Protein 1
Amino acid sequence: MTSQAAGRGTPRRVAVIGAGYVGLPTAATLASFGHRVVLAERDPVRLSTLRAGRVPIVEAGLEELVSRGVAAGALSFTESAVTAVDGAEFVFLCVPTPQSADGSADLSYVEGTAKEIASHLQQGAIVVNKSTVPVGSATMVEQVVGRPDISVVSNPEFLREGTAVHDSLNPDRIVVGADNPQAAARVGELFASTSAPLIVTDATTSETIKYASNAFLATKLSFVNALAGLCEEVGADARDVLLGLGYDKRIGFEFLRPGPGWGGSCLPKDTRALLHIASEAGYDFSLLAGAIASNDEQLARVVSKVELACGGSVVGCTVAAWGLTFKANTDDRRYSPSLQVVHRLVEQGATVQAYDPTVGAADDDTDPPEDLRGLVLRGDPYEAAAGARALVVLTEWEEFRWLDFSRLLAVMAEPSVVDARNLLDPAALRRMGFRYTGIGRR
Ligand code: UGA
């Protein structure tokens, strides 16, 4: 069932459990819609950051939205999920659902939180699954809570990191699913201040919509990256080919940028989880398996481009890498294709000097985070490029476009650039004497 949400809804008492990339924007957005929100975060460092008026993640506009909520008395923080749910009519579960070894989603945080709050929920409260959870999880949470007066509603999140505030305030759609349609409709009303279409459905369908959305985006990107590879072979320009595709309204321009492969904490995890769900159900989702395999090929293609730029092998070569996060405008490096490329280069014998605007230079007194071990971390892009045989641009940070390329030319050992995001201007670089390789681009 689809309807158009309209007008400002009645203010409600809401608890949000988990102040991560989903929970924090969700809590701040619900507070900005006029609801009274208590956000529970059990990590003491995160909690004290929030209490000090700052946010623990890089996310445009989030600090302002959180501050406005706090100043209006609509948003407050606690370390205890039990305290947060006291008096709450709606309880949003925004806890992590990491990937298990077999590709399925690990539901231990969801289950643990549901157990913890079960006996503290107020009569008739609605528990909302906001974390990305497998088909059947609403029923699982209902069973764990074990109270006939409590309904569980699936309300998947579609926000992107980096634009989380914009996406939460201006969603393309709101999806709510429950086996109790009244409960689903009540959750939909929380978002009445947005003009987004509201899809009210059953829990299984709602849970499937979330995975299907991310799997579709991943498949689209795998197609785009593979197409860019084909363009290189036949001598076509992928950027123009994709322009020609994008004007077709059925295809659209979004998610048409070739890159080093898709990553982040969602697309890789959710595609593998959907594949796992399919195989458990006895369904051969070979198309999705192909999209995942194709993404790995894309990482390998970028590594090969760097090898070629270094004369055929990276053994003993210094390679500069710009960008380590999985995309620009976030500090998130989970399942980052950029990191996967640099670690493969290190494995093959390169010394990688890396720079990312969200990562500081190496510091003699502190060990680097585990995912950055083996890299030489530099504090600016020129230092990273000093003495390098090749530079690979891996994350599309805007600042990389506007650097002093004559200075870059002067510091590099060889003027070779592999632009895995098609971010730079090949003609301008070639005029200056650089050798340039993009993705699907002459
Ligand atoms: C993704 C979805 O886009 C959101 O709708 C969803 O809510 C979220 O996962 C989630 O499940 O929580 P996000 O992980 O923030 O959001 O990242 P995306 O913006 O989707 O980018 C994913 C990857 O695709 C990145 O590595 C990015 O660099 C790459 N990408 C994206 C491209 O290579 N080209 C493009 O044109 C777009």
Protein 2
Amino acid sequence: MNRSPVWHPFTQHGLNEPIPLVTHGEGAALYTDDGRRIVDAISSWWVTTHGHRHPRIMAAIADQARKLDQVIFAGWTHEPAETLARDLVAMMPRELAHVFYSDSGSTCVEVALKMALGYWANRGEPRHRILVLEHSYHGDTIGAMSVGARGVFNAAYAPLLFDTGTIPFPAAGNEQATIDALEAACRDGAAAFIVEPLVLGAGGMLIYPPAVLAEMRAVCARHGVLLIADEVMTGWGRTGTLLACEQAGIVPDLLCLSKGLTGGALPLAVTMASDAIYDAHLSSDRARMFYHSSSYTANPIACAAANANLAIWRDEPVLERIAGLSARQAARLAPLRALPNVRNARAIGTITAIDLTGGGEGYLSRLGPALLARFREQDLLLRPLGNTIYVMPPYCIDDTDLDRIYAAIGEAAGV
Ligand code: PLP
């Protein structure tokens, strides 16, 4: 029995499943206290982009730790945050000229929602309704849960969640229904539409085409509804481009980034906003300021890690590495398509996914825990979403480790 006082996230301690103790990490691998080398096939919950303990990021953290650990960010500033904001503005679409710091994917979503409502309130035409895409996931704080799909994850908290308008997922062949529903909901009046561009992650790695995202952007623009792009998972190259939005040729009004912002080394997030949203809060009237902060906003060491990540993106052939990984994964996914238990083999950028039949669908599918245990025994960190097995490795993973991952998935799918 696990007697640790630690209460782990998304963990049912009553099942007494083993909880490995990780002592160090390097590249695409994690090492445990009992001497095992684990292949991190999901980038430690989608955060580790370049690999664990990337030397440039580790050096930047150590260097910053010698100078400034933390300082209040309301009314004060520091060089790592100023550099990072300037470089993000230079790297991301130029319409997103304002950078607000927070600490996690959930909080940068909360910030985006509050900015959207603040925008409308400060314009004197309050709008409150938020439109969301079916099967979405945006985090586990109350606001982020409210704009995510309802289900077993949040049923107990339902009374706290606010109402939203749900637009059907653009499943293949049904894209027009999505666009029509969005058009109707926008016509009825909405403050904002929040989307995960091109891939709904926790909803089951559901992929939809860039043309649909472009059309959704156009509908929002026609009705003056703000578009919030939650690129917490898709950003930093995951879908093959720096941002998934690029593939649709669109720029949102608000952009949420976290996870790979520091290369996965430290918690940090940003919400990037257009001039219109910033200007709506700009005034000599204190009542119109943006009322949000947390103690560690723009922590200098986390900002230094993010600066090192941006430098890696500038100096190293990251996109080429991603293209290579995408091709290497596609080659290994192809044979799985033929297996009788495999449905919907799919891929985008560095992400591949399959659904297994049998065992029931959804997050509580019987298959999930059985697969998890099986992969753990094989020293693979894979964490199926119910009956969906996906792979989302660090960009530095080598062929030997990829072979191990896909061989294990093939075996699991074959039984
Ligand atoms: N948004 C998306 C699209 C996510 O995938 C996630 C986490 O997986 C979040 C938000 C929440 O991020 P965090 O877990 O850092 O709060």
